[in-house]
Structures are given as structure tokens and as C-alpha cells.
Specification:
Helices cover 60% and strands 0% of the residues. The protein has 320 residues and is mainly α. The protein has one domain. Helix 2 crosses helix 5, helix 5 crosses helix 7 and helix 9 crosses helix 11. The longest helix has 25 residues. The two termini are 24 Å apart.
């Protein structure tokens, strides 16, 4: 692995041309769906581009900002769908048991008004036919987006407006290495290229792939998101399904969703305003981030104790 000790920042790259972004996106949408999610990258031999300095900086960023980074990653799952979760479930089960898993039962409908969301965002786009795999290279790239996209595209919405370009480069580098380890081919890896290129590609995936999926949410998606937030809510009291859903749609993505807003209770609206204020005040405020960090730690420990979970669950705090 190489280490870059130079204190001189590299020159800012030129913005990628529209043709470059379109070519990259076309490759992802037309070729990646037919390719297996694990391309067979070596797990024993580190790639020659791996950079110790960038990895160390990325780890430090996670230590300092883990609550807000985690919030962005959890919110991004609203842009996923139940099929991807099922695919991952089937694949892991096959590897462990050596047999196919029957279709996952459809979860019971939750309280989020699907009709309101469909009404706000309009009819779904036509879906192109493509070969079906349990987990494709495109699925893996979109999974990378869920961990990287919102931080790279909208850092100010999560109290991270003060991160430098080098900070974001290091953050992206970490997820390039994680994607490589999980089997994402280099030619498809979302995090390959300059920060400008990665940001441009993330934006196109957001606008042309992920947001359109929200026009046809199904009850499987609804049940999975509620199950996720019900679980998180046992240890993080500020983690509320409807608050996070409205925040990512309205405040982060800038979508007009008046019907969805009309279904929110006064308490949910109050919690949304509080969340928005916290993120806004956290931009460039190290003291605020310290308070957020300590509050999240305390909530986690209290939640573990209240739910009677094993004490060793708290070991994750040692990792962050």
C-alpha cells in the first residue's frame, strides 16, 4: 500500500464532461445488471492503489461524525427496494446452507401512506427488461451509493458542510476499497475517479435511478423500512421512520410531497423541525458534533440495557 506524505494539495480536476458521465452510467445500467455481484477480486492481495493516509483519515472522520454519517446511510435506504434486500438475504442464505431460500413473506402494511407518496411523485417510469440475478454488479454499486451518495452530494444536510474536498476524497477512497473487497469490479466501482467524477455519477444515479423508484413503493418496501426503524428505535430514540422519510424527500432531495406532509402528526412535524435545526447548527460546529456523539452513545447504552440485549453488544462503541 502506498502512502502520500505530500502536504501540497493536487490541482482540482476539471469537471467531467456530460459524455463521460453518460458513458459511465450507460455501462452501469446496461452491462452491470447481467454481471454477478462478486467479480472475484482477491481478498488476500491489497490493490496497488490502496492508500494508508486516506484510509486513516476516513476512519478518523467516522470516529468524529459517526452519528450523522449513520443517519445519512440509514436515510438512503428509503431509496432502495425490497427486492435488493431479498436478493442479499437469499445469497447469504445459500452460501451458509447451500440451498435456495423460498420467497420472503410480504410484511404486513405499516402506517406510512403509500397512496400519498404515489400521489406526490407521480406514476412510475417504465422499467427496462434485464437479466435477473440474485445480486448483480449494479446492485453492489447502488449499495455503495447508499453509504456514500448523500454525504458526497448533500453534506450540508447532515451537518458536514465543513468537510474539505480532501476529507471527502478519503471518505470515497474507503468505500472504493470496501467495494473492491466485496467484489465490485473496478470498471463499475462507484468510487473510482476524482471527487468531481464520483459526485457527478452519484447525482445521475440519484436523479435517474433511485428517486424514480419512489414513484412505485410497494408494501414489501414499506414493511422493511418500518422493521428497520422499529429496530433502530429501540436503541436510538431519535430515529423515527416518518421523520427521516420526510427529511430525505423534502429537505435533502428537494421533492415536493404535500400529500405526505399532510399525513404527518403534529409531533412528527415538530421532530422533523428539530432534526433539521440540529443538522443546520452542526455545520462547522465541533462542539455540536461532540454533543451529538455523546448523546448517541448514551442512547445506545440505555437502549441496550432497556431491551435486555447482551452486554457485549456495546462493543461496537469501541469501534467508533
Amino acid at each position: 500500500m502506498k502512502s502520500d506524505d505530500s502536504d501540497v494539495p493536487p490541482p482540482r480536476p476539471e469537471p467531467p464532461s456530460d459524455a463521460w458521465v453518460e458513458a459511465k452510467l450507460t455501462t452501469l445500467l446496461q452491462e452491470a445488471p447481467a454481471e454477478d455481484g462478486d467479480c472475484g477480486n482477491s481478498s488476500s492481495q491489497p490493490p496497488d492503489w490502496l492508500d494508508d493516509r486516506k484510509l486513516a483519515r476516513a476512519r478518523r472522520l467516522h470516529e468524529i461524525y459517526w452519528p450523522v454519517i449513520n443517519n445519512s446511510q440509514v436515510m438512503s435506504l428509503f431509496l432502495s427496494n425490497a427486492d435488493k434486500v431479498r436478493a442479499m438475504h437469499r445469497r447469504v442464505t445459500e452460501q451458509l446452507e447451500g440451498k435456495d431460500l423460498a420467497e420472503v413473506d410480504v410484511p404486513a402494511p405499516g402506517r406510512c401512506p403509500l397512496a400519498a407518496l404515489r400521489g406526490d411523485l407521480g406514476p412510475p417510469p417504465a422499467e427496462p427488461a434485464r437479466p435477473t440475478r440474485f445480486l448483480s454488479q449494479l446492485d453492489m454499486v447502488l449499495t455503495q451509493w447508499f453509504f456514500v451518495g448523500l454525504v458526497v452530494l448533500h453534506p450540508e444536510k447532515f451537518g458536514l458542510a465543513h468537510l474539505t474536498d480532501d476529507d471527502l476524497v478519503c471518505f470515497v477512497h474507503l468505500w472504493r476499497s470496501i467495494g473492491h473487497r466485496l467484489g465490485v469490479a473496478e470498471r463499475h466501482n462507484l468510487c473510482v475517479g476524482s471527487l468531481t467524477q464520483v459526485r457527478a455519477l452519484c447525482l445521475q444515479l440519484e436523479r435517474r435511478v433511485l428517486v424514480p423508484q419512489l414513484r412505485h413503493p410497494d408494501r414489501c418496501w414499506l414493511g422493511l423500512t418500518h422493521a428497520l426503524f422499529d429496530g433502530l428505535g429501540t436503541v436510538f430514540r431519535q430515529c423515527h421512520h416518518d421523520v427521516f422519510l420526510y427529511y430525505i424527500l423534502h429537505d435533502v432531495l428537494g421533492l415536493e410531497v404535500p400529500r405526505l406532509y399532510g399525513t404527518l402528526s403534529w409531533l412528527t412535524r415538530l421532530r422533523h423541525r428539530l432534526l433539521r435545526t440540529i443538522f443546520r447548527l452542526a455545520n462547522g460546529n465541533t462542539e455540536m458534533h461532540a454533543r451529538i456523539r455523546e448523546r448517541a452513545r448514551a442512547e445506545f447504552v440505555t437502549g441496550v440495557e432497556k431491551e435486555g440485549l447482551p452486554k457485549n453488544v456495546t462493543y461496537v462503541l469501541d469501534l467508533i
